[in-house]
Amino acid sequence: MSFQPKKSNVRPAGDRLIIKGGKIVNDDQSFYADVYVEDGTIKQIGENLIVPAGVKTVDAYGQLVVPGGIDANTNLHAPQKGLNPTDDFYQGTRAALAGGTTMIIDHVLVEPGISLLSAFEQWRDVADQRVCCDFSLHLDITRWHDGLYEELETLVKDRGVNSFLFFMAYKDRYQSSDSQLYEAFGILRDLGAIAQVHAENGDIIDEEQKKLLSHGITGPEGHVLSHPEEVETEAVYRAITIAKQANCPIYVTKVMSKSAADVIAKARKKGMVVYGEPITASLATDGSHYWSKDWATAAAFVMSPPLNPDPSTPQYLTSLLACGDLQVTSSAQASFSTAQKAVGKDDFTLIPEGTNGIEERMSVVWDRAVSTGKMDENEFVAVTSTNAAKLFNIYPRKGRIAVGSDADIVVWNPKETRTVSGKTHNLTVELNILEGLEFRGVASVVISGGRVVLEDGKLNVTEGSGRFVPRKAFPDAVYRRIKARSKMAEARGVPRGNYDGPVHDVISMTQSVPPTPTTRGTPCPKTQTGPRNLHQSGFTLAGAQIDDHIPRRSAQKIVAPPGGRSNITSLS
To answer: Is the pLDDT of residue 12 over 80?
Structure first.
């Protein structure tokens, strides 16, 4: 298997750097050491390193040296309602670097009728020319059919794609049925890929949207009202059930509610191979903003699944992330301007869905989880970088500070704070859903591909400098368990002798019973003339009966019927 590079433009040469005095933090250990970087790769780690003269020194005293963040869910090029995101591959990855994220995995939205391969090639061509950091691609399958197998196989074996997303929502547009999911999951398992789901019950959402619109509810609050928490929870449970039966690893994107997170946690406790992804927004804020009096503010929060109105949700999801019940944090970055959102000013179903979060993601996790004592520094590295690297099979190239790993490194200042503002963030979208919130923990220096791109608060990025990172199939962190389960789940018959006892003749019984007629006997007359005959009844035994095959006796003697003896001696 070989993945050929496509980009013709040359990546700028990496700096020769030594990061001194910092505390190196990986997902499994922390220690003090210096790091020497050359040609975009970590060359040495230790104390008193011997390095060439003229090497640039990065001061990390009193700070942490962590692997660059990996945002495993972005939508920087996916159109909605015919509109492209206002922050594309350039603006989006620029903002990512400002927040300490040095790699993204973007979703390729394959519209129905479009070839998977052609969509992938088009997406990659655009990204190659625009991204400022390394990237990879998921493929979102919006119309499942048998003919996709060859394209899936090519994407996995020759294009470096090992994850595919399916929609359980967006009825009549992208939604897959349960049988389609089961079939697709089985194929992905055989190819060594990971199945992802957008988990919501699309049928219920469709009916709720119609009902709310008919009642005159057209504003952004209609979005959350038509996407109640239960439709997410039910779909998550159903997706996990289907994946378990297909023995396919399942990754639930955008976990937004407490009950949906609980379903994932319980499934993992039962040994199921399932992973959950809360996002920047669901960890930092809630859905109360859908009822804002300002339409533009309310519309800025519209996304699916929606933010939960329960104000305790962010804290709850953070706790599950800290204890390992949820594994990866992403941003689901998809920002649309107020003017673009206003396409749905008279109909909430037409509002383009998506929010920001790519720049704030790592600070949100540090502030809400580490600063509060729920999570330690090693777990912070795991949920913001290493877990994604392991799940999507790019570890230890990414997600670790180690000799031979890519020089994607962040010097993290745990004491510095930042206040979010749409006026100062590095995106072009005018409204930031985290406006005014203050977070502890900030990236003070960011190194991407061996080049310093953020220092002293100044960004210095190069458009098109990011590389495509191919991902091989069968990630070990996932498929060791899948392979073990496959062996245990092999169906085995019970050895026993042949049954030689009596067998009931079901076929002859069936044949002996005539079909039930559509009309039995003569219908009771509707009108009657003259005096009523009290002996006449509408009830009749005329017509075929179920016991007609049993021979009738010619006479039957009544010995002593109830009520006394009788002179009736036969029924004829």
So the answer is: no
Q: Any idea how long the chain is?
A: 572
The DSSP element (H or E) to which 365 belongs, if any, is: helix 361-365
Q: Which two tokens stand for residue 225?
A: 């009202």
Backbone angles phi, psi at 494, to 5 degrees: -90, 125
DSSP-derived letter for residue 525 is P
Percent of the chain scored above 90 by pLDDT? 82
pTM, two decimal places:
0.86
Rounded CA-CA distance 131/95 in Å is 11
Name the token pair of 18: 């030594």
Q: Which residues of 162-187 are buried (b: 16+ CB within 10 A; e: fewer)?
A: bbbbbbbbbbeebbbeeebbbbbbbb
pLDDT, tens only, 441-494: 999 999 999 999 999 999 999 999 999 999 999 999 999 999 888 877 677 788
CA distances from 254 to 65, 174, 319, 333 (A): 28, 17, 16, 11
Distance in angstroms (rounded) separating the CA atoms of residues 429 and 34: 39
Angle at alpha carbon of residue 563, lines to 562 and 567, rounded to 5°:
90
Per-residue model confidence (pLDDT) at position 568:
45
Look-up of token digits 């297909």: 246
Please state, for a pLDDT cut of 70, what percent of the chain lies above it. 86
- The percent helix, strand, coil of the chain (3-state, each to 5) is 30, 20, 50
Which residue is it, tokens 């692997």?
A: 67
Contacts of 312 (CB under 8 A, 6+ apart): 258
pLDDT of residue 569: 45
Long-range contact set of residues 142-149: C-beta below 8 Å, sequence gap at least 24: 142/109, 142/110, 142/111, 142/112, 142/167, 142/173, 142/174, 143/112, 143/113, 143/174, 144/176, 144/180, 144/181, 144/183, 144/184, 148/116, 149/187
Concatenate the DSSP letters of all residues of 446-501 into one string: EEETTEEEEETTEE---TT---B----SS-HHHHHHHHHHHHHT---PPP-PPP-S
Of residues 68, 65, 60, 21, the one with CA closest to residue 40: 68
C-alpha 321/C-alpha 469 separation (Å) is: 27
| Tens digits of residue pLDDT in 326-364 | 999 999 999 999 999 999 999 999 999 999 999 999 999
For residue 147, name the pLDDT band (cuts at 50, 70, 90): confident
Average pLDDT of the segment spanning 316-322: 98
What pLDDT digit, counting tens, does each position of 187-235 carry?
Answer: 999 999 999 999 999 999 999 999 999 999 999 999 999 999 999 999 9
- From the list 184, 220, 176, the residue with the least C-alpha distance to 202 is 176
63: left (phi over 0), alpha (psi -120 to 50) or beta: beta
What stretch of H or E contains 322?
helix 313-322
**Helix or strand or coil: residue 71?**
strand
State the number of CA atoms in the 13 A half-sphere of 546 facing the CB.
3
Q: Strand, helix or coil at 258?
A: helix
- Spatial contact of 312 and 366, defined as CB atoms under 8 Å apart: no
Residue environment code for 8-27, b if the CB has 16+ CB neighbours within 10 A, otherwise e: eeebeebbbbbbbbbbbbbb
Angle, to 10 degrees, between the axis of helix 116-130 and the axis of helix 149-158?
30
